[in-house]
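Annex B, item 7. Sequence and structure tokens for protein A, then protein B.
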Amino acid sequence: MSLLETLLQNWVHTPAAAALGWTLVHSLWEGAVVALALGAALLLLRSSRARYIAGCAAMLALLIGFFLTFRIVLAEQRIQGVDIAFVFAVGHRVHGGPPGEGPAGTRTAPAGLGEG
């Protein structure tokens, strides 16, 4: 298993990964709300400059909404789970237990060493 695969597998089980997934789900309905608001604004606005500014504001609202949602969801995930700084500090010890011991007491090889 490569280092990248190991890091990715460890990251998938962190609160940040769960928060990112839920943020993507929430961005769907947030984008729909922003699109409806932009559509209404474009119906009312006649100036090309005003329509351009409304489009830029909509894109900025999507970006800001994404990061605010991520921050809120991440805070909720941290309350429910382990703090992400702890997970990255201990690396493969996501399941707890003493170093070198995996889930349910199984032994693990030190990072970077195979079974050979």
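Protein B:
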Amino acid sequence: MNIKMNNNKITINGMSFCGSSVSISKGKITVDGKECEVEKRGKIVINVEGDVEKIEIEDGEVTAESVGNITTQSADVNCGRVGGSIRTMSGSVVCTEVQGSVSSMSGSIVHR
């Protein structure tokens, strides 16, 4: 998982962090190059406050208000304004405004 943002607050599985670059790889979370401890759960739940440049995640659940582009494998996406596009293989998408395209091979797509 990779998230690029502008020093915003991000909550992952109930724990909050501030930063510009967040990644999860092999169960380890790194925020702006520093490794962080997070309670491990089966599903990754992410909530981003503020503008996000891009979100790339394999699975889990993502909530963000204003995003550039989102790409997932099987994550559910709930967002407000998307300046680019949303692509997911098997996740559902709920959004208000998308300037690009929205695609999901096996998930539902809902515009509010």
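Comment on protein B: Residues 2-111 form one domain.
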